[in-house]
Amino acid sequence: MKKWLIYTFAIAILAVLALQLFMFSTIQQQKNSDEKYFNMAKQEYKIFVPYIPDSLELFGENVPVDHVLVRERLENEIVRNMYWHSHTILLLKRSARYFPVIEPILSENGIPDDFKYLAMAESELTNAVSPVGASGVWQFMKSTAQEYGLEVRTDVDERYHLEKSTNAACRYLKASKQQFGSWTLAAAAYNMGGGALKRDVDAQKTNDYYSLLLNQETARYVYRIVALKLICEQPFQYGFFIRNKDLYQPIPVKKVSVSSSISSLVDFAAEYNLSFLELKNVNPWLRSDKLVVNTGKTYEINIPLSFSHTKLTENIADPYTIFKDSIVVE
After folding, report:
1. Mean pLDDT per segment of 10 residues, for the chain of length 330 residues?
2. Which of 238, 265, 296 is the last residue of a domain?
3. How far is Cα 128 from Cα 122, in angstroms, rounded to an integer?
4. Residues 124 and 95 in one domain
5. Are 238 and 325 in contact (CB under 8 A)?
6. Cβ distance 138 to 124 under 8 Å?
7. C-beta separation of 249 from 313 below 8 A
8. Which run of H or of E encompasses 174?
């Protein structure tokens, strides 16, 4: 009898242990993809020397990476951006929201697609204001903006209008390309100004950017653009383990034409069930709480259709695939 009780008790203990093991296994299997992703990210993090291709182009023009000075300067910019994690991960996330606006405008104007990385280098794809007053994603000074057709006044500043400022940047870059003969020098002129660049080109008797001795900022400028191109096109190669679902998605909008003044943009926003903050987020070119519309002038105001993270991400293709790679984490 005692043996039977002991046997029964042992079986009961084994059954409980088996049940606990099964439950633990089930819980482990049910860990969501986010936990798996974060665990993998921790395990895979390494510090390593950046990859530099044997041949490389920017704006469709050769980057002479076999030259030791060029290679080391490029490596300097890649390392700085690879390991400035907070900066670069935000650039990658923003690129998904703003590049779809910039890319078709560059294409329509016959500007190489790589110039989207110039915008990234200029402003980090934000409506930044520099210490000298350059503003917007493309960092136009007020006088240059007006020269290239942008409206800049108290309540309207089209340097903050992504579509219009991108078109203005295209006109500037075309003029610089015509002056200097290469897109690479056009990019350098965007940074230091055409007059200053021409003086250096004439004095040093070369129109090869990679052979010019330039001021420190412009000497790094094109290399920074190349580095951003490499990292954005192969983020996983440079240590950025980001899923498609983690990128900032474009905010869907409808456009409303306005041909008369708006005395209160706060009230205008409320008519569309929006806060003033939400209206200004998708219309950063509106610089005050009202809009004065001169006779014969019409503006298009973006009305956001959704700020729901769930809605913005529900139709992402391959949400658990690593950005610009084929690895799936789910």
Report:
1. 52 52 44 68 73 96 98 98 95 98 98 98 97 97 97 97 98 98 98 97 98 98 98 94 95 98 98 98 98 96 97 92 87
2. 238
3. 9
4. yes
5. no
6. no
7. yes
8. helix 162-180
> At 318, is the secondary structure helix, strand, or coil?
coil
Q: Please answer whether residues 213 and 204 qualify as being in contact, where contact means their C-beta atoms are separated by less than 8 angstroms.
A: yes
Residues 10 and 128 in one domain: no
**What is Dmax (Cα atoms) for the chain?**
107
Q: What type of residue sits at position 225?
A: I
Terminal CA-to-CA distance of the chain, rounded, Å?
Answer: 53
> Using alpha carbons only, what angle is made at residue 145 by residues 143 and 146, rounded to the nearest 5 degrees?
65
8 A C-beta contact, residue 59 and residue 187: yes
In terms of phi and psi (left: phi > 0; alpha: psi -120 to 50; beta: otherwise), the region of 217 is: alpha
Q: What's the whole-model pTM score?
A: 0.87
How many Cα neighbours within 13 Å face the side chain of 237?
15
The helix (run of H) or strand (run of E) holding residue 257 is strand 253-258
Take residue 28 and report the two structure tokens written for it: 């482990």
Structure tokens at 153: 């006044």
Instruction: State which residues form the domain around 116.
Output: 57-238
Q: Which residue has the tokens 């658990």?
A: 320
